[in-house]
Amino acid sequence: MTDMDRDRTQTSEGEVESAAQTRRPVRRGGGDPGSRGRTTIADGVVEKIAGLAARDVVGVHAMGSGLSRTLGAVRDRVPGGSKSVTRGVKAEVGEVQTALDLEIVVDYGVSIADVARAVRENVVAAVERMTGLEVVEVNIAVSDVKLPDEEDEEPEPRIQ
Fold it and tell me: Taking Cα atoms as reference points, which of 128, 144, 152 lies closest to residue 50?
């Protein structure tokens, strides 16, 4: 059998076609280019989104427990340090779902149930919109109430 014979096929009608005539155009990749590959989202990304969304709710005074806020205040005073938006937020991120635990301090006089509901709604909306992940739960622990006459634990910086 010669190379020329290998490049020819016989059709059912007995006609001989060359291999170039029988080849179909090859589809590369397949499907929408936007769906090729995987996207992974780190826990810290979801924590930042949730932390910022929770802080936007009226009645949330701060995030985190007293100890984490104190340590955060010290860390914030270090030159080059910045405010930690993930303080008081813990996320567990899977491939298509995420679960969040938030620890908040509420202002005195607000309805804790209303603040918690508003935090959940804001966090779920922000995380789902920005990441595409389904938020399966947002657990909220209220660790303190900020009284009107209490000083903030985070001291004002000496240099403005």
Answer: 128
Which pairs from 121-129 meet CB under 8 Å and 24+ separation? 122/53, 122/54, 122/56, 122/57, 123/50, 123/53, 123/54, 125/53, 126/49, 126/50, 126/52, 126/53, 127/46, 127/49, 127/50, 127/53, 127/98, 127/100
Residue 122 near residue 56 (C-beta atoms within 8 A)? yes
Q: Determine how many CB atoms are found less than 10 A away from the CB of residue 135.
A: 20
**pTM, whole model, 2 decimals?**
0.69
Give the pLDDT mean for 137-153.
89
Which pLDDT value is given to residue 63?
95
Alpha-carbon gap, residue 82 to 89, rounded angstroms: 16
The letter for the amino acid at 68 is: S
